[in-house]
Amino acid sequence: MRTPADxxxxxxxxxxxxxxxxxxxxxLGAQISADYGGRRLTLVSVLKGSLPFMADLMRSISLPLQxxxxxxxxxxxxxxxxxxxxxxxxxxxxxIEGEDxxxxxxxxxxxxxxxxxxxxxxxxxxxxxxxCTLLDKPARRLVEIPVDYTGFTIPDQFVVGYGLDxxxxxxxxxxxxxxKPEVYADPG
Length: 188
Prior knowledge:
Layout: H1 4-9, E1 11-16, H2 18-36, E2 41-47, H3 51-59, E3 65-75, E4 82-90, E5 100-108, H4 112-122, E6 128-136, E7 149-153, E8 159-160, E9 176-179, H5 181-184
Parallel strand pairs: 2-3, 2-5, 5-6, 6-7
Antiparallel strand pairs: 1-9, 3-4, 8-9
Helix pairs in contact: 2-3
């Protein structure tokens, strides 16, 4: 069984500290609050990775808001590469028709999953549909995604922490760190 010390030892580099993340989330919350000008907002978290980000972000937004959760899967045989095939495992609980909707993502890399999600949610006729991501990894982008709010642009490295996982571990780290390659490298 992995201990917290084991998880920390698997990190090769801390890319973003807890303080950096919290400061940027507060800035994003203030910007979103200003941009929506007092209108009610619906935040949609794409489970599981974006949950810590959305929880902190919603506390930084000074608007009337509601939240909803979706769970999608786009990973095939490998847990480090998206297959591009998206399955909705949990859909929204409420209608978003006529609502201002902000998708809260943990990370955008290829853009394939989010591209599908934007088209899917757009079909539910929200008044507006925007995207807020904690991390953007443009070096891996395969489809263009119009991101409205970006926390940090990061290099093409495999990161974990603050909701991001590898094998369902590391989500509870308070920072974003680069996972040592030997942790996820194929031993074959």
